[in-house]
Amino acid sequence: MKLSEIARILHCELHGDGDVEITDVAPVEDAPPGSLTFVVDRRRARELATSRAAAALLPPDAPDVTLPSLRTSEPYAAFVAAVELFHPSPAREPGVHPTAVIAATARIGDGAVIGPHVVIGDRVEIGCRAVLDAHVVVYRDVRIGEAFTAHAGVVVREGVRIGHRVTLHAGAVIGSDGFGFLPLPDGHRKIPQVGGVVIEDDVEIGANTTVDRATLGATVIGHGTKIDNLVMVGHGCRIGPDCLIAAQVGLAGSTTLGARVMLGGQVGSAGHLTVGDGARVAAQSGVHRDVPPRHDYAGYPAVQAREWRRASACMPRLPALFRRMRRVERAVGVGSAEDAPGDEG
Amino acid sequence: MKLSEIARILHCELHGDGDVEITDVAPVEDAPPGSLTFVVDRRRARELATSRAAAALLPPDAPDVTLPSLRTSEPYAAFVAAVELFHPSPAREPGVHPTAVIAATARIGDGAVIGPHVVIGDRVEIGCRAVLDAHVVVYRDVRIGEAFTAHAGVVVREGVRIGHRVTLHAGAVIGSDGFGFLPLPDGHRKIPQVGGVVIEDDVEIGANTTVDRATLGATVIGHGTKIDNLVMVGHGCRIGPDCLIAAQVGLAGSTTLGARVMLGGQVGSAGHLTVGDGARVAAQSGVHRDVPPRHDYAGYPAVQAREWRRASACMPRLPALFRRMRRVERAVGVGSAEDAPGDEG
Amino acid sequence: MKLSEIARILHCELHGDGDVEITDVAPVEDAPPGSLTFVVDRRRARELATSRAAAALLPPDAPDVTLPSLRTSEPYAAFVAAVELFHPSPAREPGVHPTAVIAATARIGDGAVIGPHVVIGDRVEIGCRAVLDAHVVVYRDVRIGEAFTAHAGVVVREGVRIGHRVTLHAGAVIGSDGFGFLPLPDGHRKIPQVGGVVIEDDVEIGANTTVDRATLGATVIGHGTKIDNLVMVGHGCRIGPDCLIAAQVGLAGSTTLGARVMLGGQVGSAGHLTVGDGARVAAQSGVHRDVPPRHDYAGYPAVQAREWRRASACMPRLPALFRRMRRVERAVGVGSAEDAPGDEG
User: Computed from CA positions of residues A210, C288, B249, C199, in that sequence, does the dihedral angle turn out positive or negative?
Assistant: First the structure.
């Protein structure tokens, strides 16, 4: 595709030779000949000098470069559009594979692609243009909106509610029983988990992630929220809209996240607490208390990130601090009987 | 259902109007009109004043409330029984779905529900009243007791032994190979994992959890133990009875847990160590050494929880401690050449 | 099998009675009568005195023991060979189960075992002697080498490349979408994940592990690398050859591991960093920066393991250190207004 054609489709301003032939898109560092690349920060435009790319998407105020360029106020968004242009999703023929087992009482909208060995239970309703890949299992009484995508092996348990344009990646389990047991003298008695799960519009959930159903009421995942792989969402969690939850995060029961919360990988949260709107928690942190809105938290237990960084920077210097303390105590003549033995760290 | 009828079924003492019609059960904070709620701690009975619930389960010594109430020495257990009363598990018609693939040499007890596309291997034995949902795979030579429940997509590898009343949630994998490799000059040689897995009675295992088979001998999960989602049980672990293991816990090979051990979410344990009876380990802790019976541990590496809480409370004050040290050193005239630069934290 | 026969097969030197009948293999501590056990360290040969084993594999320089023994310079490797001798993998009849759904354009090599309900997409190529257990799903355009093993429920997404002798354990997902979203004023826009995954020869990947496809280019897992259960490999990671990655490790996008890297369980790594050849990172550590080759790292954030051990050994003594500081300050007459309240830890 000619660069001038791409400029037209992406609504960019063309600088330089529009007849250059573009064959793919690539980041600067890996760009092969013939590729369109991009630079978001105009100060990094000079990196293009050593790139093999054929052209670049640049912000309007970037300096002139030897490559032909497309100028746009949103180079990254234009790059994403270019990726879609060069890698269109293959159209899939609507239809139901003959090995699928679909209850007579289920209703599936027009244009659905139902793969081999899919199982859909009684009274399930699924909107238009759904794609259910091989081996997806939807239990009874589930309701799902339009443009649903479920990759191979997804399991949606009974009664779950799912909005429009939701994507579930392979192996995700939605609506498994919450982990609730009543300790009795003769062992643990299961607390029935009879609540549900509500997944709002435009949510994406990663591979092998599990979202437990509530004991009573519902576990809720707000619209636009994106969840990575191998995440655990405990029973009764209420996750707000437009959150980003990285891989292997674990949210204990009844955790509440506000809007636009960002959790780094492997973050753990105790239950029955609230992370405020726009708060961010660094990877591997352990959240034991409420996090106020628009704060950055980190550490175990998590505190303000700035505070945590300062404190953890002290850690490697602790052995020396103990030695310094001993020296000072000797100079002052203050004894330290309780701490003396083995004090050199 | 009338409150007086519920009182009769749950063996509670009725205080107030027994003709109140109850339509559901709910926790105090979410109780809709018409619901039965509960309070375990009599000092919290006053919270009922602002609840919309129609009636409450209370301990015998709770003060009088404006709502009708049911008195019982175990309000929480009675509430669980009430949940079951209002949300009975739907009866499922026994039968084998025609798409299931069951080896001729397999034996399955009476009353089984075998879902679509289930696969059961040679010489498998399963007791009465089993429920195997869609896509469950049971490899050859597995033996399973009565009242077994496996949700969609569960995989049970060859030779695994499972007791009575065991529940496996969707995507759980039982009997995958342990992670054992012998480092040789030309790479890692796999150590064959030819041991098994024994799951005793009344065990429940969460969604997408994995339990590896032993190299030799068996990985054992004791009766009554409950394991949450996305947990990893390494090869040769021996887990005692009535343990509670929260989500995303990882137990390295040959970890031994005693009876009634409780592990918080994301706890990791090194292998070849023992956590004693009744010990509890706080979420995200890293267990590197034996934990004595009936102790609470926390931290990384895990120590007594009390000790860890005190130590971690010091963390945020470390930068100030370094400043204080510098001040004292100056006052005393003790040099600190080694630690001087960048010491302000 | 007679011990002398085992000596012949394993190329070991026989000491003592070769007519002893061996019925199984076992580690020293669990060895039942009739078993062959092994000791790697000659100083531990005395433990055999209390073992019930019938014979032992020993290094050549081990002292004489009362049991008959087989001497070899590699007792552990000989033991592994003995395990294989006593527990041969059962031969499986090649063939395609009639419930498998295989695209007309797929090509599968000789000797394949294709289990029930397997699904293989368009233009897939699989080499000789593949074993695909029940419910394995291979999307379109995947290429796989010889001697491939996939356990039940494995999902391989479109376009993935897999080398020879690769094993994927139950529930593993290869090629799921990377987690990439562009924050825009009206929510997160998905960055299409159009790259691939390349898995080289002799790789083994654990149960329910997920390996994401790259945004562009490829996620690579080097030859001979072994990955345990429930691991997350983010998009664009490049893992070198012969690495060992323990359970529940999480690698954020574009992490690079060199050759022979070892990561302990639950390690987390930030993205866009490099762990050098032969480096080892202790369980639960959080890697935030490059790790130089052949270094041992530990902690959160990870530093040199030696340094971390020294620093974390100081942690439990911090409350006492604060008390000591207070005492010294009083002795010197230095005030500490800012830190005074609550300073006793």
Answer: positive
- Whether residue C320 lies within 8 A of chain B, CB to CB, comes out as no
Distances (CA, A) of B60 to B42, B47, B49, B56, C257: 9, 17, 18, 12, 62
Instruction: List, in order of start, the domains of chain A with CATH numbers.
Output: 3-86 (3.40.1390.10), 95-307 (2.160.10.10)
Cβ–Cβ contacts within 10 Å for residue A294, how many?
12
Residues of chain A with pLDDT under 70: 336-345
**Do the Cβ atoms of C314 and A312 come within 8 Å?**
no
Does the distance separating the beta carbons of B169 and A176 come in below 8 Å?
A: yes
**A171 close to B (CB below 8 A):** yes
| C256: three-class secondary structure by DSSP | strand
Joined together, the tokens standing for residue C25 give 């293999």
Burial class for B99, CB neighbours closer than 10 Å (0-12, 13-18, 19+): buried
Whether omega for the bond prior to residue B60 falls within 30 degrees of 0, making it cis, is no
Burial string for C180-210 (b: 16+ CB within 10 Å, else e) reads bbeeeeebbebbbbbbbbbbbbbbbbbbbbb
Mention every residue, 6+ apart, whose C-beta is less than 8 A from residue A269. A249, A250, A251, A252, A255, A263, A275, A286, A287
Q: Which residue has the tokens 């490697």?
A: A316
Distance (Å, whole) CA C39 – CA B106:
41
Question: pTM, whole model, 2 decimals?
Answer: 0.95
Quick one: tokens of A170? 């392979």
Cα–Cα separations (whole angstroms), residue B214 to B103, B197, B220, B252, C261: 26, 7, 9, 12, 25
Q: Which of B194, B238, B254, B322 to mutate to test the interface with C (most CBs of C within 10 A)?
A: B194
Closest-CA distance, C274 to chain A, in angstroms, reads: 16
Provide the 8-state DSSP code for A67.
Answer: S
Helix-, strand-, coil-residue percentages of chain C, each rounded to 5: 20, 30, 55
Average pLDDT over every residue of C308-319: 93
**Residues A219-278 pLDDT 10s:** 999 999 999 999 999 999 999 999 999 999 999 999 999 999 999 999 999 999 999 999
Please spell the DSSP secondary structure of B163-192, one letter per residue.
-SS-EE-TT-EEEEPP--EEEETTEEEEPP
Q: Omega before A116 cis (within 30°)?
A: no
C339 Cβ under 8 Å from any chain B Cβ: yes
Q: What is the spatial distance between Cα C66 and Cα A285, in angstroms, rounded to a whole number?
A: 55
Of C230, C221, C166, the C-alpha closest to C196 is C221
Element (H, E) at B226: strand B226-227
Beta-strand relationship, B302-304 and B296-299: antiparallel
